[in-house]
Design goal:
heterodimer; A: about 450 residues; B: about 260 residues; alpha/beta; Rossmann fold; 6-stranded mixed sheet; 4-stranded antiparallel sheet; 10 helices; about 25% strand; globular; ATP hydrolysis activity (chain B); Fe-S cluster assembly ATP-binding protein (chain B)
Chain lengths: ~450, ~260
């Protein structure tokens, strides 16, 4: 049976056969079957103001590639070590292309019932737990063609479960090293913080191939149950030539909090969808995003907070720097549904243009179905302020250095929010590289 | 060697409109000059033009620092040559702490590999902040962001004290300051006073000159220096205002615009 999807043919039988050969669980294989059955009839997503008709989201050289594993943190490549604070890292999962390559979890956490496992293995070891949360409350398989494609082709990812009232002090980190130009990343991350629990999760997608035409189709489901708190940090550095869809979705129950700090530093053409549903009363989300566009890169960064709960607070802060001929569309949506009384939806989107030929568009959208709420937005697209440069230069600082300071400063509010020092440092270095590169 | 800043027949335009119409002024290290005058006479333009503000175009004349052509220099080169402008409205720089900025600024005046030692820097910063009665937390706050008017002015003087330029040009550093803050800011400037520091203080009000005694006082009207003298000139302005000068010169309107009409 062959299923036609856009312009790409997925051989459904082969997908299922390969999944079986890799020893995937019945649960996962059934999900894949379900996705393959409906994919043909699903629409493509429609990211506002970005035309993706000519984007190829489907061509994959290989559904899965095999890569080496690491026996200890010492064996990791230097590029990965740079992301870690080796001595203090307690909980880490390293994925090498599509291969689960290293896992280390604090024993004390295991005793408390915390689960940190690669997603494929977790469907074997904790089938009921995974089944309860996998693509149910967060992202649905049938949302559109790309979520179905994601489910069908899923080839990596992580499952984190924090039981009731367990507070994990040390961050949980995932590093995905992409160094095979034939590898597509179809990663699924599922973070569940049960009632009253807390966790800080940080992920790094790091590609060091020069050129590739492979796919990125990443879905993160981040579920904070009653009174739980999740801090989610990410730094994406994926290669030019890749095409991607990255969906990071949060769902917060009563009194829960989900805070995001995302450094979108990829050189790929990407649709980034970061949406948080504030389902519960008194739930909160802070979403902070930075991005730098360069070359011919085309990005859509949609950030949404959708309020259902009363007294819920959603704050969006997005800063982007555009260089060369890069294009970025910033869509910010604060949506207070009927019943979200006394909720607060705020957003700020700013784009700094460093080139005449770059394009940036910041669209703040507030949708309010409830009377008793507060909401606000600020958006701007502009160039480096010549008066700021004059001020800095009047103290002896060179033009180049002054520009550098202004740009770092512009991105700093998000960089500062990243929860792991080594990751913060990495993001600063990447910003430095991307800003200074020609 | 005593440095000399010479301004000769300086003409400056903003957006095609001439503001300065031939200013002549010579400053030497060790001297404090006050430039006074009513609003709209070109005082701030003079300060901004010396530093190289991007909106101000010099159409005629020269600025020389020890014989070097300042107008040929980029803004940062002017600073490195020893000029400093304390601004009336300093920019807010998000994400850059006052302390990081100051260190970058100091190091920009030094050779690569000869950067200021961190301990040395902190010591100097602490000492100067104490002198200016500035809260310690200002060092870690973003430069000028959310600062009150008074804090911004103190921060300008802090920068002046940290950078120790040959010439400090202070553009209405007293505006918006209460008496206490004025005393503190003046204390900073007076500390620098000496053979190695010259200053051009631009002010509306004589009261600043009660704290910083000028060696020379100049009055600007219609984009020119129309009268120069010593301390006694500012004292007379304090009691009599500017009318007697206007009468002497036979003009009604002192502003630059008056000539355009």
């Amino acid at each position: 049976m062959a299923t036609v999807s856009n312009e790409y043919i997925i051989n459904a039988d082969e997908v299922i056969q390969r999944a079986g050969e890799r020893g995937e669980s019945d649960f996962l294989i059934n999900k894949k079957k379900e996705a393959l059955e409906i994919i043909e009839n699903l629409e493509m997503p429609k990211p506002d103001k970005t035309n993706i008709k000519r984007w190829d989201f489907f061509t994959m050289a290989e559904p899965v590639v095999d890569s080496s594993v690491y026996n200890s943190l010492d064996e990791l490549p230097e590029t990965v070590k740079g992301l870690l604070d080796i001595e203090n890292t307690k909980n880490i999962y390293v994925q090498h292309n599509n291969t689960p390559a290293y896992l280390q979890v604090d024993e004390k956490l295991q005793d408390k019932g915390v689960v940190i496992e690669n997603i494929v293995e977790a469907t074997h070891n904790h089938p009921e737990l995974v089944a309860k949360y996998f693509m149910t409350d967060g992202v649905k398989v049938d949302e559109h063609k790309l979520t179905a494609f994601h489910t069908a082709m899923l080839n990596g990812g992580l499952f984190v479960y924090v039981p009731e009232d367990v507070k994990i002090e040390d961050p949980v980190q995932m590093v995905v090293l992409h160094d095979d130009e034939k590898a597509s990343l179809v990663n699924h991350v599922l973070v569940v913080a049960d009632k009253g629990s807390e966790v800080t999760y940080v992920e790094n997608y790091l590609s060091n191939v020069e050129q590739t035409n492979e796919q990125i189709n990443i879905v993160s489901e981040v579920l904070a149950l009653d009174n739980a708190k999740i801090t989610y940090g990410a730094v994406d550095v994926l290669a030019e030539g890749m095409t991607g869809y990255i969906n990071r979705r949060g769902v917060a129950a009563n009194d829960a909090r989900i805070d995001w700090a995302l450094g979108l530093m990829s050189d790929s053409n990407l649709i980034n969808d970061n949406t948080t549903y504030l389902m519960g009363d008194r739930s909160n989300s802070d979403m902070k995003t930075v991005t730098i566009g360069r070359g011919e890169q085309n990005q859509n960064v949609t950030t949404q907070i959708i309020h259902y709960g009363k007294d819920s607070n959603g704050h969006i802060l997005k800063h982007g720097v555009m260089k060369d001929r890069a294009t970025t569309i910033f869509n910010g949506v604060g949506y207070i549904k009927h019943g979200g009384t006394r909720s607060d939806a705020q957003q700020e989107s700013r784009i700094l243009m460093l080139s005449e030929r770059a394009r940036g568009d910041a669209n703040p959208i507030l949708l309010i179905d409830e009377d008793d709420v507060t909401a606000g937005h600020a958006a701007s697209v502009g160039r480096v302020d010549p008066l700021q440069l004059f001020y800095l230069m009047s103290r002896g600082i060179s033009r180049k250095e002054a520009e550098r300071l202004v740009i770092h400063g512009f991105l700093d509010p998000v960089v500062r929010a990243l929860p792991i020092e080594s990751v913060k440092k990495q993001l600063k270095e990447i910003i430095e590289l991307k800003v200074l590169s020609k | 060697m005593t440095s000399v800043l010479e301004i000769k027949n300086l003409h400056v335009e903003i957006d095609g409109k001439e503001i300065l119409k031939g200013v002549d002024l010579t400053l030497k290290q060790g001297e404090i000059h006050a430039v006074m005058g009513p609003n709209g006479t070109g005082k701030s333009t003079l300060a901004q033009a010396i530093m190289g503000h991007p909106r101000y175009e010099v159409t005629q004349g020269e600025i020389l620092l020890d014989g070097e052509d300042v107008l040929e220099m980029e803004v940062d080169e002017r600073a490195q040559a020893g000029l400093f402008l304390g601004m009336q409205y300093p920019s807010e720089i998000t994400g850059v702490t006052t302390s990081d900025f100051l260190r970058s600024a100091i190091n920009s005046h030094r050779e690569e590999g000869d950067e200021i030692n961190l301990m040395q820097f902190i010591k100097k910063l602490d000492k100067n902040m104490e002198h200016l009665e500035i809260d310690q937390d200002m060092a870690t706050r973003y430069l000028n962001e959310g600062f009150s008017g008074g804090e911004k002015k103190r921060n300008e003087i802090l920068q002046l004290m940290m950078l120790e330029p040959k010439f400090g040009i202070l553009d209405e550093i007293d505006s918006g300051l209460d008496i206490d803050a004025l005393a503190v800011v003046s204390k900073g400037i007076n500390k620098l006073r000496g053979e190695k520091f010259g200053s051009l203080i631009i002010t509306h009000y004589q009261r600043l000159l009660n704290y910083i005694e000028p060696d020379f006082v100049h009055v600007m009207m219609r984009g020119k220096i129309v009268k120069s003298g010593g301390k006694e000139l500012s004292e007379r302005l304090e009691t009599e205002g500017y009318d007697w000068i206007k009468e002497e010169l036979g003009i009604d309107d002192v502003t630059v615009e008056s000539d355009v009409k």
